[in-house]
Design brief:
By secondary structure, the chain is α/β, with parallel strands linked by helices. The chain has a single domain (2-15, 25-182), classed as Vaccinia Virus protein VP39 (Rossmann fold, 3-Layer(aba) Sandwich). Helices cover 29% and strands 28% of the residues. The chain has five helices and nine strands, in the order ββαβαβαβαβαβββ. The chain has helices spanning 27-39, 57-64, 77-90, 101-106, 125-137, and strands spanning 2-3, 13-14, 47-51, 69-73, 95-97, 112-117, 141-152, 164-172, 175-182. The strands form two sheets. A seven-stranded mixed sheet has the order 5-4-3-6-7-9-8, with helices on both faces. Strand 6, helix 5 and strand 7 form a beta-alpha-beta unit. It holds the Pfam family Cons_hypoth95.
């Protein structure tokens, strides 16, 4: 069972897309991630984007904990429908885009303070690198914005483009979280 850990919707269950290969971030990893974000006061009033949203667990956790604007991007229509249902059932406010990450990032930039990138493990490093470059190049990221990339421990560290500075790495079993901050070029 996947659930919201804390905040206004804390303890409530999240539905996950059935048999679609979605890999929701485990409660344990989300709890550690959001404790780290809370320690740096990165959530209250934050403008958040969750790319490859799956069930919406990361973005909806942020909404539950005080993010002011949450944008979830998921290309699978069934999964996007599940996210919309989760938003409604939990009484949270979030916008869901049912489109590819590339298409969403090619649209009008909406400045963000915090971006989660949790792609399928089979997404290639080149595609991930392109996503990161687009975030920086199209000015999606506010100054000092935080980008958190979740991957398998077997994945290489993301190729951080100019404008994103690697900050720290956290490992939780099979999962690795890479943190980077938007810096002036």
């Amino acid at each position: 069972m996947t659930r919201i850990i804390a905040g206004t919707a804390g303890g409530r269950e999240l539905r996950t897309p059935p048999g679609r290969g979605t890999r929701p971030t485990s409660d344990r990893v989300r709890e550690a991630l959001f404790s780290s974000l809370a320690a740096r006061d990165a959530l209250s009033g934050a403008r958040v984007m969750d790319l490859y949203a799956g069930s919406g667990a990361l973005g909806l956790e942020a909404a539950s904990r005080g993010a002011s604007d949450v944008l979830l991007v998921e290309s699978d229509r069934v999964a996007a429908g599940v996210i919309r249902d989760n938003v409604k059932r939990l009484g949270l406010t979030a916008q869901v885009l049912s489109m590819t990450v590339s298409s969403a990032l090619a649209g009008p930039a909406q400045t963000r303070d915090l971006v989660f990138i949790d792609p399928p493990y089979d997404l290639g490093e080149e595609a991930l690198g392109h996503n990161l470059e687009t975030l920086v190049g199209r000015e999606w990221l506010a100054d000092r914005a935080l980008v958190v990339v979740e991957r398998s421990k077997r994945s290489a560290e993301p190729a951080w483009p100019a404008g994103l500075e690697a900050e720290k790495v956290k490992k939780y079993g099979e999962t690795v979280l890479w943190f980077a901050e938007r810096v002036s070029d």
